[in-house]
Amino acid sequence: MSDLVRVALVENEPAAEIAVGLLRVEGIRAIWQRAGTASAGVNIGSAGGITGAFEVLVLPQDAARARELLAPSEAESGTDRRV
Length: 83
Description:
This protein is α+β, with helices and mostly antiparallel strands. The chain has helices at about 15-25, 65-70, 75; strands at about 5-10, 30-35, 45, 50-60.
């Protein structure tokens, strides 16, 4: 995959795996990689995964849909207006 676009920046390896898995289920080819900044740091988290910043990458033509799928829902963001 070349000319990839970052659609998300997540804080650990398990979150990156979940995001990529969701995109793949929806038919979007996606990968994750550690963010390129050395200052981001890498640690082993309590669940055994690597922590630090991770980028979720997709092809440019899939970026808008991927961002839509990865966006927090209204219920998660606290803006759910249902009574």
